[in-house]
Amino acid sequence: MKVQEALSVLKEKGYKYTDKREVILEYFSIEDRYRTAKDLLQHMEPSYVGISFDTIYRNLHLFDQLGILESTELDGEKLFRMKCDQHHHHHFICKECGVTKEILCCPMDDIQEELSNFMIDDHKFEIYGRCPECQ
């Protein structure tokens, strides 16, 4: 998702534009990988002295709920990245730097028959490890 598209989603859902929100979205757009709330706080503190962790986390949670960001949990910590707006796919996630790589195959293709009498609403498949740069 692009920053302007994300800002439009905020406006459509009745949330106001703030410069902090735009900075958050630009951060995730540029990073293009999973990042923690602490990473974002460190990025924003020089420009927004005194910005609270609560403000950061509230906005991250809002963006996740609105489908602007996607989240995952790694080692008990929540990480966020800009929502992919492409075709259906899954991710490999580097545990060191948060970089992601698309996985085009879907395990649901193989297990859907096993769940034939279950109603599946959604699914998420992630593989964790280390990218070539972090090995």
Low-confidence stretches: none
End-to-end separation in angstroms reads: 29 Å
**What is the strand content?**
15-25%
Strand adjacency order, main sheet: 1-3-2
Question: Which structural category do the helix and sheet elements fall into?
Answer: alpha+beta
> Can you tell me the CATH topology of the largest domain?
Arc Repressor Mutant, subunit A
Helix content: 25-40%
Largest sheet: 3 strands, antiparallel
Query: Which second-level CATH architecture of the largest domain applies?
Result: Orthogonal Bundle
Radius of gyration computed on alpha carbons = 17 Å
State the order of secondary-structure elements, H for helix, E for strand. HHEHHEEEEHE
Q: What's the overall geometry?
A: globular
Number of helices: 5
Q: How many domain units?
A: 2
CATH superfamily placement of the largest domain: Winged helix-like DNA-binding domain superfamily/Winged helix DNA-binding domain
- Number of E-type strands: 6
Oligomer: single chain
CATH classification, class level of the largest domain: Mainly Alpha
- Chain-averaged pLDDT: 91
List the SSEs and their pairings.
Layout: H1 3-12, H2 19-31, E1 35-36, H3 37-44, H4 53-65, E2 69-74, E3 77-82, E4 90-94, E5 100-103, H5 108-111, E6 126-129
Parallel strand pairs: 4-6
Antiparallel strand pairs: 1-3, 2-3, 4-5
Helix pairs in contact: 3-4
